[in-house]
Amino acid sequence: MNLDSLAASRRHSHAFNDGNPIAEHNTRRAMALTLVMMVVEIAGGWWFNSMALLADGWHMSSHALALGLSAFAYACARRYAEDHRFAFGTWKIEILGGYTSAILLLGVAALMAVQSVDRLFHPSAIHYPQAITIAIVGLAVNLLCVWWLRDHPAHSHGHHDHGHGHHHHGHDLNQRSAYLHVAADAATSVLAIVALFGGMYFGAVWLDPVMGLVGAALVSLWAWGLIRDSSRILLDAEMDAPVVAEIREAIEGGEVPARISDLHVWQVGRGKFACAAEVVTPSAVDSDHFRRAICVHEEIVHATIEVRNAPIGAVAA
Fold first, then answer.
1. What is the pLDDT along the chain (317 residues), one digit of tens a residue?
2. Angstrom distance (rounded) from CA 159 to CA 92
3. Backbone φ and ψ of 164, nearest 5°
4. Domain final position from 177, 212, 235
5. Do 225 and 300 have their domain in common?
């Protein structure tokens, strides 16, 4: 067997990113519906001379932009899936989209807070009936989008989380970012409706800006959680993930005495990890022995193992 044939027989093909066609489709139609509602609110605000509706319409435009960003990330990840320049696939394009979307979400929260403070000190007349009607329609649209973008258990791969769901290893963070944008819009719509009814029936004009501040705080909290989870993946901060302990146990807890002298683990897809390890052992075993032990765990899809033989007795059993 020549070198080319030997290399071909040892070559592995990897599909690190399975994609998420359901989430991509739902993100696109949520974006389309959000754009339609945005136009309705802006037109209604102009027609009824309602600054509240105009503000909410432009606020919804930021969510339409974020949904478009999520859809664009899905499309890019799918388009470049076979591009050899991406050593470990294109999944992080989706994560980058989620991270950028979270930054936009923080911007929306800041804008909401500034506008609410300004409205608190400079109240203006509100056309309550028209504003309430369109706000209710907006809430219905947002709830429909929330339903579309909810996390589907069949696609979440949650069994890889091993009880550490705060890492969201098996979840689609790009889908989650889109979901949070429409959920934030739904929450602010609820707060706006409560404030508008309070102002119309009880004269509590101050409720509108106060509810805006509450909504801004809530959106900021959601955005920060998304930034934390997506940035961990972008920075490969995975060495405290449960899969690292599984790798150590598979190598050091087997029948062959061995110790890991160097280990690097990073995430390459939803619930999928790659690792590079240096193993010290006194036994005459090759890297395939340890690779087979590691790959019993299905979330480990790529393993590079370097074996260094140590003198007999140098490694404790």
1. 565 554 455 455 555 666 678 888 888 999 999 888 888 877 876 776 555 566 667 767 777 888 888 888 888 888 888 888 887 888 888 888 889 888 988 888 888 788 888 888 888 777 788 778 888 888 898 899 989 888 754 344 444 444 344 444 556 788 888 888 888 878 877 888 888 888 888 888 888 788 878 878 888 888 898 899 889 989 999 898 899 999 999 999 988 999 999 999 999 888 889 999 999 999 888 898 999 899 888 889 889 999 998 765 554 44
2. 21
3. -115, 60
4. 235
5. no
Q: Decide if 11 is inside a domain.
A: no
Contact 259, 279 (CB under 8 A): yes
Give the separation between CA 76 and CA 63, rounded to whole angstroms. Answer: 20
Last residue of a domain, one of 201, 235, 269: 235
Burial of 168 (0-12, 13-18, 19+ CB in 10 A): buried
Nearest Cα neighbor of 34 from 176, 173, 186 is 186
Q: What predicted TM-score, i.e. pTM, was given to this entire model?
A: 0.73
Q: What is the number of domains present in the chain?
A: 2
The one-letter code for the residue type at 281 is: T
Judgement on whether residues 257 and 272 belong to the same structural domain of the protein:
yes
Same domain, 248 and 128: no
Strand order in the sheet with 272-281: 259-269, 272-281, 300-309
Q: Is residue 220 part of a domain?
A: yes
Q: Which amino acid, 12?
A: H
Cβ partners under 8 Å of residue 66, min gap 6 = 101, 104, 105, 177, 178, 181
- The answer on 151 and 255 residing in a single domain is no
The predicted structure's pLDDT at residue 49: 59
The DSSP line for 199-264 is: HHHH--TTHHHHHHHHHHHHHHHHHHHHHHHHHHHHTT--TTSHHHHHHHHHHHSSSS--EEEEEE
